[in-house]
Fold:
Amino acid sequence: MLKEALAASAAVAAQCADSERVEALGSVLAAKPCHVALTVARGSSDHAASYFASLAMSHIGVPVASLPMSIATLQAAPLRVSGELAIAFSQSGRSPDLVDTMTALREAGALTVSAVNAPESPLAQACEYRLPLRAGPERSVAATKSYIAMLSISAQLVAYWQRDERLLDALHGLPDTLVDAAALDWSAAVAALRDAERMIVIGRGLGLAIAQEAALKLKETSGIQAEAFSSAEVRHGPMELIDRDYPLLVFAPRGPEQAGLIRLASDMRARGARVLLAVPDDACDAPGAGMQLPLATTRHPALDPIAAIQTFYVMAAQLAAARGRDPDAPRHLNKITETH
Structure:
């Protein structure tokens, strides 16, 4: 897991060096705008889809929804999607429900796209457009580099769709930032979470996607019952769970949501929660917000969550080892999950 997480920078560099497919798709979308977009994915891939959705909605204004696959497969619903974008995210591209859903959407007239790490997989073959992740074979059960590759291909697609030169330039600098992000010291988080049994991971906006992914990895590799929430949602029902010494990991990268996330961290620290606040060094002057974990910054705030999850992955591998678990062999899990 750790070795493959550290290979993410090379995957992003490979994408930037061969962007012809994503540039062509961006031109198609710009020339013939869709009214809505659908994402199709499960697990870590669905968290990548969440990042794409947030980025596309905030930068382009196209509403994006996650499609429950059973709507297309088990229920065979007559989906009215002609001319709309449907994008599937997957590492293996082999789960039957993903393939069948994208086949149904293509037959219904949707513009179908696969962002998949296996370019010759059934999912890639089922879609009209293919965006290879270029992450190389992923052997770790807990996906890392392919997830980061999905985030970066999402940012590339939105950048070419919007013709955003600033975002494209920032993507070319992302591989070096990922190397720096992997070297940041989160050992304090390992000590704080070594004995945790349950916790909440918080994000908002583009950062919610990495909170979701971090919670899944804490389950998969350390056996911690971690749940992800938006900072706006945690003040509702989940607040009841948070009492003294309850662990919270709060991702607060740059962006309009950052100030509110830092305030939430301070509020929860005042309640006695054990708060780990992941924030750039120059962004937080709140000593009452809890233990601060450093975050790297990229050339564009929209890419900061990608650097944040890179840092988290290194910590997650270290935490699993500290808890006496093997992050490369999570119990009861397989590399490829085939659902119907």
About this structure: The two ends are 27 Å apart (CA to CA). The chain has two domains: 2-173, 184-322. The longest strand covers residues 85-90.
